[in-house]
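Input record (one chain):
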Amino acid sequence: VGPLAGGLESDAAAGRPRNGDLNAVDVALLRSVALRSEELAEGGLLKYVHREGQGELPPHNSRIQVHYATHLECDGRMLDSSREGHRSSPCAFQLGGRAALEAWQRAAATMRCGEVAWVRSSAKFAFGALGALPLVPENATLWFQLEIVNIRHPGTVQFFKDFGLAIEEAERQLEVGRGDVQRKAFGQARQAFRRALNAVPDKLLLCQPVEDVARFADMERSALLNQALCSLRLGEEAQAQQQQHGGAEHWQDVVRVCTLLLERHLGARSA
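The corresponding structure, as predicted from the sequence alone:
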């Protein structure tokens, strides 16, 4: 496989046998030198992290750019690599799409940009009982080395001049944010709630029927409350990690959003 990106250059770090075969890996060594491990799914899908990444987990439908290598568990032999041959470049796939193996999809959903992990996959999550002959044998258990090179988030908010289209876009972004909250990806969720708020400028509310203004108000209250929740959770995480300055930024956002909520909604009700 060669040295892992980021300076993991020793044979032990790369999982290479000490016999000097650079294209094979010692799977027992891969397990022993991992920083941590986790089970991604029952039935033989495990991840061994060799380098931590940074940032948030990728939201659904993100475009993932990854360097990879594929090895047989039985002898450690390398079958394919994005760093070898004429291609020698990362590949890309959509998280939640059908272009990548299920093992890759499940692993990438748990990885941050820059993370390097080895994924042990039974045939169930890779090429199945038939394999991919002649390269991948039948019922083969594989090891994938994955390095997340880049994460491109789903398309940002679209702006419309028509209120109906604008509020539909706002509600779509609201649902994206709620999904991110369920995954505890609070950074992505907060951005989605901000996009929801930006989708409907105040000028589109002029001369709209009462029911449309009420629909907007429901969306705005939900987006503001969820944005405050996300900033609160991010502040707690930063505090737990002793990131003093980053935590202050999140607390300030909580105050700003709650103040806006009071001014635009509770204040209007009491007037």
